[in-house]
Hints:
This protein is an alpha/beta fold. The chain has helices at residues 2-19, 23-26, 57-67, 81-89, 104-107, 133-143, 145-170, 178-195, 207-241, 262-270, 280-288, 299-308, 338-350, 353-362; strands spanning 34-39, 47-48, 54-55, 72-77, 95-97, 111-112, 117-126, 254-258, 273-277, 294-298, 314-326, 329-330. It folds into three domains: 31-116 and 327-365, Periplasmic binding protein-like II (D-Maltodextrin-Binding Protein, domain 2, 3-Layer(aba) Sandwich); 125-130 and 244-323, D-Maltodextrin-Binding Protein, domain 2, CATH 3.40.190.10; 134-241.
Amino acid sequence: MLMIIRPLILGLALIFSMAVPPASAQDAPQDRPEITVGYRVTPPFITRGEDGNYGGMAAELWKRIAEGLDVTPRYVEYDTVADLLAATEAREVDVAVGAISITEDRAERVDFTQPFFDSGLRVMIDNRTSSSLVNLWNGLAEAGYLRYYAWLLVFILIGTVGLTIFDRRFDKNFPQRWRDGVAESFYSVMLVVTKGTLPSRSRLFGWYGRFFSAFWLIIGIAVVAYVTSSVTSVMTSIAITGGINGPDDLPGTTVGVFRGSTAENLMRRQGIDFITYPGIEAAVDGLRGNDVDAIVADAPVLEYYKFRNPELGLDVVGRLFSPEKYGFALPYGQDTMIYPITVRLLALQEDGIVQQIAQDYFGDER
């Protein structure tokens, strides 16, 4: 009897083992639900290395959060934060990761997790022109002095030609070659303009020449006084205004902002002229090309770019203003992952992981 039952039990066990998959197969990654994670490259929060791999503070923090979730992420890149939030609102993205400021307007469109970073706006300027001859040139042009300088140049040329013709006729010692004569006359005219003096040829006509020389002395002194006073007044104006040293100096200027950013909304509310750019690289090109006078954007983004590109001569000036917080964005709805992601984020904050990741990118100031 036992000889018959034992083969029967072994056969049933074999059939059962084939019907039920092992525990490892049940937990295989292919059984995890796939979620779409949207992001926008914004160093130092989202960076792309030369090898094509992504990093940054927000990216590393998201990886820590995703480790505690039973999901398979699929990553999609967006050009601007406005595009990223629009995709999140349309439920094309399950989670938006990056330097995303939490605002009232955005909170009406998408849901946000617990904040993970405190930030604000600052101003970036091009230090190459903040105190250079470019400002002086622009000031002279705006005041209309360059137009008068142009007329002065015309008179210098006319005077050079006229003096050449005059001396060729009355001064037998004057160079007969036109090239040499024009050079000599130009030198004489510039002496009058810059020093108020006339060469010795003024003695050609006795006391008439002396009066003629005195007349040019007055003309030269007047020209020098006019140029000096105009340059001084413009330089004084530049010193008083001081260029752009912070957010209080932005009215009356044109600033660059990122398209769809909180800086764009703030500049629009304050009535400050602005030009939108898709990202920091394009905005810096506009700043260095004098299309805008400054860039207004998130402080850590500007500070990080300046630190990584010291050769560009950029500077981040003024105080932090319009303070804001960063968080991960999700679409509204009961089937989103807002609760598990927020709980996981809070756990990482309590364990000091968030602070540790921030210090890796910003030092002990965070």
